[in-house]
């Protein structure tokens, strides 16, 4: 392109209007990290976009707000505003532990009036100052769990874009849920026939449906799902090459808003680890990995909420020892009664592990609490991953070409595990329907077999995961499918001056 033309284009783009997007992430690490990383990606890509993040505090103590602060501090075009807790404070629901999805969505809804106040003031300040630096609010980008915020957007004549932090397969399920509910209003039972879900290749056994559909959260969940189609667009943390079948299904049903597959959106710098871990602990883990042979370590990690009781911990230890593999194990246990829901690091390893385990595995295995997962998966010593199949963990492991063996625990992880094994052939099966808190104990011999299988250097799954790893990187590069989707999303945002839909 000649210099003059470039200059003219630059001048034109500077003249063009800037817009502000208001992001409302859900306060959970699996939600917040990808939403904020997407915000960063937009800023990097389009200089006319500024972003205001409305931070709803987690109901439980976490380090999420320090993560959000660090992201905002590193980007002048990202502004972070705390949403005040509702007064009187939303009381923790009696069934917080029994039906976490229900209490989570009620908790978020309780912030609606305060969100409305903030967005109204952002909109009116942009109207009031018709000066050069006025920035039009072009829409809300809300986590799918915050879909109730559509009401705020509608009142202010703004469009809402949903941000799906999970898979296109899960989106297919959510879009199907209200349709099924019209014919059958009862929550599913494990003994029901398999579900035929447009966008998911294989009929889905009810035992792998999200735990929320059977734990007392059913109606809250249907309520959330029934609003998805009110969005102007749905941004999904996935990519066409990974979930071709599901993504194509959205283009053909004639009812779903445009879907923008923009993933993988992951935090490759692992800032989350820095806010959750002492530097010394992180260094210890990475130094230990540095001393291990290439692809020799199996990594066990179960997400932000995964934990096991003492009996299960012993079985894992025996399984690992018998497998003969080197291991890095992020071991977290349920909190003591009355101390919230967040898992804790094991207070006394000697007490819960089999006698002599630590001595026998000294040098061969390392146990930690919170792990710097992205860095661990990126490390050349890591060869396999026993994972709870949270969607971020799946994307991170694909990115780094590390195969997973499935041990789902909560949320939609059973569905993720089912599809990764049966539909996509990108994971090895240990369990598909294990549920945290269900009282089941997986025995050591099964764990041993799973660990040996995932460390097999010649497995078909390993080859496929490596190939998919290359595709993940291509998808987000200039010319890739997700890069193009981000471009389409930006065009829609910049071009839309037409109020809510
Ligand atoms: N994570 C981590 N260290 C841990 C546990 C989790 O860094 O010990 C990170 C992991 O890399 C991922 C996120 O926390 O980015 C978990 O998200 P995912 O969707 O996999 O599961 P969730 O926590 O939402 O169940």
UniProtKB/TrEMBL annotation:
Tagged with keyword Cell cycle: no
Domain of life, source organism: Eukaryota
Protein family (similarity comment): Belongs to the UDP-glycosyltransferase family.
InterPro entries for the chain: UDP-glycosyltransf_plant (IPR050481), UDP_glucos_trans (IPR002213), UDP_glycos_trans_CS (IPR035595)
Swiss-Prot/TrEMBL keywords: Glycosyltransferase, Transferase
GO molecular function: UDP-glucosyltransferase activity
The protein's name in its UniProt record: Glycosyltransferase
CDD domains: GT1_Gtf-like
Pfam families recorded: UDPGT
EC number, UniProt record: 2.4.1.-
Gene that this polypeptide is encoded by: LOC110758655
Enzyme class: transferase
């Amino acid at each position: 392109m000649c210099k003059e033309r470039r200059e003219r284009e630059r001048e034109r783009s500077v003249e063009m209007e800037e817009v502000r997007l208001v992001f409302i992430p859900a306060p959970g690490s699996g939600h917040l990290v990808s939403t904020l990383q997407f915000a960063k990606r937009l800023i990097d890509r389009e200089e006319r976009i500024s972003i205001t993040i409305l931070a709803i505090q987690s109901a439980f103590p976490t380090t999420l707000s320090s993560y959000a602060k660090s992201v905002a501090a590193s980007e002048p075009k990202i502004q972070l505003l705390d949403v005040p807790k509702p007064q009187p404070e939303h009381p923790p629901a009696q069934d917080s532990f029994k039906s976490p999805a229900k209490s989570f969505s009620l908790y978020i809804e309780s912030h609606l009036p305060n969100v409305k106040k903030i967005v109204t003031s952002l909109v009116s300040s942009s109207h009031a100052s018709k000066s050069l630096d006025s920035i039009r609010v072009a829409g809300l980008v809300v986590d799918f769990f915050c879909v109730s915020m559509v009401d705020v957007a509608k009142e202010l004549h703004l469009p809402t874009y949903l941000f799906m932090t999970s898979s296109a397969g899960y989106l297919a399920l959510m879009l199907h849920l209200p349709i099924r509910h019209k014919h059958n209003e009862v929550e599913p039972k494990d003994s029901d026939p398999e579900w035929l879900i447009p966008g998911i290749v294989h009929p889905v056994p009810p035992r792998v449906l999200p735990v929320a559909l059977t734990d007392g959260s059913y109606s809250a969940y249907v309520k959330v799902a029934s609003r998805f189609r009110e969005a102007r667009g749905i941004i999904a943390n996935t990519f066409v090459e990974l979930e071709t079948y599901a993504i194509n299904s959205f283009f053909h049903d004639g009812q779903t808003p445009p879907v923008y597959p923009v993933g993988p959106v992951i935090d490759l710098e692992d800032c989350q680890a820095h806010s959750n871990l002492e530097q010394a602990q992180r260094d210890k883990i990475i130094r230990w990995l540095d001393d291990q042979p290439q692809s020799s370590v199996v990594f066990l990690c179960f997400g932000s909420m995964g934990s096991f009781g003492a009996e299960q911990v012993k079985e894992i230890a025996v399984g690992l020892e018998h497998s003969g593999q080197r291991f890095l194990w992020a071991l977290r246990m349920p909190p003591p009664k009355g101390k919230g829901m967040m898992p804790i690091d094991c207070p006394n390893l000697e007490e819960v592990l089999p006698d002599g385990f630590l001595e026998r595995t000294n040098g061969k295995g390392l146990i930690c609490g919170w792990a710097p997962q992205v860095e661990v998966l990126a490390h050349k010593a890591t060869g396999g991953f026993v994972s709870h199949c949270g969607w971020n963990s799946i994307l991170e492991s694909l990115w780094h070409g590390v195969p997973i063996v499935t041990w789902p625990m909560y949320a939609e992880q059973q569905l993720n595990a089912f599809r990764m094994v049966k539909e996509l052939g990108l994971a090895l099966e240990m369990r598909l329907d294990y549920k945290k808190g269900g009282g089941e104990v997986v025995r050591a011999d099964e764990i041993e077999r799973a660990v040996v299988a995932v460390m097999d250097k010649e497995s078909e799954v390993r080859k496929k995961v490596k190939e998919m790893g290359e595709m993940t990187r291509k998808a987000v590069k200039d010319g890739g499918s997700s890069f193009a989707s981000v471009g389409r999303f930006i065009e829609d945002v910049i071009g839309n001056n037409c109020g809510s839909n």
